[in-house]
Amino acid sequence: MPARESLDYEIVDVFAPRAYAGNPLAVVFDADELTTEQCQALAFEFHLSETSFVCAPTEPGADYRVRIFTPFAELPFAGHPSVGAAHTLVRTGRLPAGTVRQECGVGVLDLEVDGAGAQLTGGEPSIAAERPVHALATAVGLAADDIAGMPAHMAGCGLPWTYLAVRPGAVDRAVADHAALDALGAGEGIEVLSWDADSSTAYARAFAGDLRWGEDPGTGSAALGLGVWLVATGQLPGEGTSAYTVHQGVKLGRPSVLECTVSAAGGAAVSATVTGAVVPIASGRIRVP
Question: Does the reported pTM lie above 0.85?
């Protein structure tokens, strides 16, 4: 059978309260025959923060496999490409609504898909030792009196992020020095946030190390890891399930809303979910490199 000359794709906005908000994503269908180099070339052509390439599954019980690329690298997992791909597969009739099982680089993950969006259950929670708060603040251009008095940790549910809590007025003044953050071992990147305990809401900006433009408007993996960090630092209960909301992307003009839960036992997170709306924007065909 001859190789395909072009492939169908869609552009969707993920974690989006409306069109042209949230985090844009390209979803490329029937990508099984693409090489890594071809996927990377297509992701660079779209030049969005990530592109999801949908393939047939290889693991038992999975409904599909997704390969996730930034314009510059492949990722084992990411939140908005997972949520956006799952919802798009259901909306376009390729999968039925309800529970879908996605195979990716961190294993097989469950997503619940309905008409408006999708809920992703992250991978196994992880939490690392404390990070140097003052050095991290300096690396994002902030001063000692901007720090909110919470410890900084690297945490994740598939991808590790470093979390730095600052005073509300400081979040939008952060400017990431990625070389300094790399030297501090900040993982996939750093989320600078202010936390409102009364409403269980974070106002956040995520500076991703693998994005040359530096800032991501809506980051599911960071929202999942935030729940792990919130439990570890005592901001959310160490037993039972707690809900929290992340507002991100406001400074970029791409407001994102990520509705999350974290379940904990014995003072540690055991699972987390992130839910967001997905808005279709465009569709078409793209030439195979």
Answer: yes
